[in-house]
Design goal:
Elements: H1 9-20, H2 24-38, H3 49-56, H4 60-68, H5 87-104, H6 114-118, H7 123-140, H8 165-172
Helix pairs in contact: 2-7, 4-5
Length: 200
């Protein structure tokens, strides 16, 4: 923001550590996915952390991205005709994207805060959110994902198993190997140290 001065001391150290987490290669992959998902109308950012931030800052590209993951007719984020120019409208647009991302299935701990993007406080967190969103889209495999599926890791899915009553009863009779065996166990021949001395 305009009234924010330079950081000194511990604040600068913390900010530099946060900035080091930003991944330029990941930025390229995310830009490729967003363009593949939304179409070339979203344009491309200038390379680098600041260019990426400026591209996403008004929330329009993010809103188009999350809308493209839903079937036609059920778009969760309303996109205005003209991109918002007022600060609070841009932040509101980002907040709508974050809500839609959570509704889509992104875990709350993977969701960035609005200021992380708007003030470029933590662009690595923005990357994490987009990665989580991409992973969910690949995992759902509902036909709304566009792009190379190898760009994102598939999330683990539940694989429920059904057992019959006889299989469950059979399992109760088996002693697991980790429990060991007590056959032939006794304390015969065991001695530890010297016997107790009674001194009078």
């Amino acid at each position: 923001m305009a009234n924010k001065g330079p950081a000194y001391g511990m604040s600068r150290d913390v900010q530099s550590k946060i900035e080091k987490k930003y991944d330029d290669e990941l930025e390229e992959r995310l830009v490729e996915w967003i363009v593949a998902q939304c179409g070339s109308s979203v344009g491309r950012p200038e390379r680098g952390r600041l260019g990426f931030q400026v591209w996403l800052k008004n929330g329009i590209v993010l809103s188009q991205l999350v809308n493209s993951l839903y079937p036609a007719g059920s778009k969760p984020v309303k996109i205005p005709d003209a991109p918002p120019t007022m600060v609070f409208k841009q932040m509101e647009q980002i907040a709508q994207f974050l809500k839609a991302a959570e509704d889509y299935g992104v875990v709350k701990t993977d969701v960035f805060q609005t200021v992380d993007l708007f003030e470029a406080k933590d662009m690595a967190a923005v990357q994490r959110t987009l990665m989580a969103l991409g992973s969910l889209a690949v995992t759902k495999n509902d036909g709304n994902y566009h792009g190379d599926p190898s760009w994102f890791m598939k999330k683990a899915q539940e694989h429920k198993r059904e057992f019959t009553e006889s299989q469950l009863k059979e399992g109760k009779n088996v002693i697991g190997l980790q429990m060991g065996s007590n056959k032939g166990a006794s304390q015969a021949g065991m001695s530890y140290g010297r016997p107790r001395q009674i001194i009078s």
